[in-house]
Amino acid sequence: MIRKMKSPQTVQQLQSFLGLVNYCRSWIPDCAIHDKYLRSLIDRKAPPKTPLNWTDEAEMHFAALKKAITTAPSLGLPSFEKESHLHVRETEGVAMGVLLQQHGSTYRPVAYLSKKLDNVAAGMPACLRAVSAAAIVVQMAEKIVLSHPMIVYTSHQRTYCITEKARNNCTNCGLRMTLK
């Protein structure tokens, strides 16, 4: 049924689809990127039956989410006896991560995590967005690993970001909120 679903025509139809996607978001890689774009089509003040301005890009994001929720996930169950590895990145104001654990000679995903950065974090320089993204995704992963060891990987040099860039771009309060 979902595979045959046509593109949403109204605000209400898109909101219904995104509600279904939200229920499955832990199993969908980069879910927040697709969700963010589709939500940008919705005027919050518009009545439910308002027609959408559907574009080719919207269709691409819709198709990606539709495919993701109709494909069997390849996620493994977390094991508290194994170390967890969290790979984090930030793209277009969205924090994304994948929590992995070793399975034989390879690593298998345990969860895909993603969330839109708040407006303050989204306005920071790239390295501080990466720090904020790491903080957000670590908090999300904590619900799965339950304080067991976790190694966090990111493409930015966090020490430099925190000690040098933060002095020029964050208030003390803003930095504490980003790093908590």
What keywords describe this structure?
180 residues; alpha+beta; Ubiquitin-like (UB roll); 4-stranded mixed beta sheet; 7 helices; 4 strands; DNA/RNA_pol_sf; Rev_trsase/Diguanyl_cyclase; Endogenous retrovirus group K member 18 Pol-like protein; RT_RNaseH_2
Task: Briefly characterize the structure.
The chain is an alpha+beta fold. It has helices spanning 11-23, 31-39, 56-69, 119-122, 126-145, 158-169, 172-179; strands spanning 84-91, 94-103, 106-116, 150-153.
Overall radius of gyration: 18 Å
Question: Number of helical segments?
Answer: 7
| Backbone shape | globular
Q: Helix share of residues? A: 40-55%
Quickly give the CATH architecture of the largest domain: Roll
- Mean pLDDT across all amino acids: 86
Q: What structural class results from the helix and strand content? A: alpha+beta
Protein name: Endogenous retrovirus group K member 18 Pol-like protein
Domain Reverse transcriptase/retrotransposon-derived protein RNase H-like: 54-152
Organism: Labeo rohita
Pfam family, one: RT_RNaseH_2
Mind explaining what this structure looks like?
- The protein has 180 residues and is α+β, with helices and mostly antiparallel strands.
- The protein contains seven helices and four strands; from the N terminus they run αααβββααβαα.
- The chain has a four-stranded mixed sheet with strand order 3-2-1-4.
- β2 and β3 form a beta hairpin.
- α1 runs antiparallel to α2 (31-39) and α5 crosses α6 (158-169).
- The longest helix is centred in the last third of the chain and has 20 residues, at 126-145.
- Residues 173-180 have low confidence and may be disordered.
- This is Endogenous retrovirus group K member 18 Pol-like protein.
